[in-house]
Amino acid sequence: MRHPEYFFGKNHVNVLTDPDNLRILKPHLLCAAWELPLAAGDKSVFGKNYLDACKELETEGLLRMRRRNWYLTTAIRYPAQEINIRSTSSRDFSLVENESGRLLEKVEESRAFLQLHPGAVYLHQGDTYLVTRLDLAGLTAYAEPVAADYYTQTKDITDIRILKTLARKRAGTVNVSLGEVEVTSTVLGFRKKRIMTEEVIGEEALDLPAQSFSTVSLWFDIPGGVGEALAAEDLGFAGGLHAAEHAGIALLPLFALCDRNDIGGVSTPFHPETGQPQIFIYDAYPGGIGISEKGYDLVEDLWDATLKAISECPCREGCPGCI
Do the beta carbons of residue 24 and residue 287 sit within 8 Å? Predict the structure, then answer.
């Protein structure tokens, strides 16, 4: 709001997707095959992973080769009907009302443990429900209506491992990298917080399996001497990194058309693979959809916007509006 030029000064937005992501390409090929058989020469249209995707679909029994073309098998009727337009995930959890068996919501797999864990308070069309059971094998959560004066907030831990560095550059005095990473998240428990006062009225532990996926991330070093400077002012280094990560994630949608929940981040005072403090910002979808690449290309613009947002905030101690 303090910088309307970020809104009015742009003549276009960066709409991003990654057609080489197999999780995007494979369902797209099924839709194409429904209209016209796929030929080997179609690689020029569908990209470098086209043949690999067709072979995987053939192995899965969804395409079959005949006369050097791939055709849909009888296992598929109308493929577009099965495609999730909001996520690359092909699996959703169902939220079902206990007493009536009515389907309330579909929640994508990557968000299910955060929103549908046992004890979670879930808001559906203005009505509040309490999740009583989560069936992992059946991909179903069961809930009942409840009048709750609190909401729930999960406590989770995320680890990130670098699989492959795709690009690296020098920006100012630090190194910025782009690459493939594996993200592993574990939901450890949740807090109950009063709606009006934010008072924590209870905490409960959860025993849920870790969830891992591969995606694309950008990461950057921290300039030398920052840790010592913060220590001299009796400020927390780890907390500062975490705040900078959150602020950067919040500002990235200015440069790449996405939602805050399309991006994830990890900050650490010491990453075992780089041997130094690190901030990672990654696509929150398996395989990546191009957000991190745009952030990597425009990282100095992202830093500039993030610095402005934080330095112009009137709060001395920091607040959820920025960090």
Answer: yes
User: In angstroms, how far is CA 66 from the centroid of its own chain?
Assistant: 39
- CB-based burial, 225-263: b 16+ in 10 Å, e otherwise: eebeebeeeeeebeebbbbbbbbbbbbbebbbebeeebb
> Which tokens belong to 22?
């197999």
- pTM confidence score: 0.78
How far apart are alpha carbons 61 and 76 in whole angstroms?
10
Q: Which residues contact 131 (CB under 8 A, 6 or more apart)?
A: 95, 116, 117, 118, 119, 120, 121, 122, 141, 142, 143
At 129-181, the pLDDT tens digits run 999 999 999 999 999 999 999 999 999 999 999 999 999 999 988 999 999 99
Q: Is 207 exposed, middle or buried (0-12, 13-18, 19+ CB in 10 A)?
A: exposed
Element housing 191 (H / E): strand 174-194
**Cβ contact 75:120 at 8 Å:** no
In this structure, are residues 166 and 160 in contact, taking their beta carbons and an 8 Å threshold? no
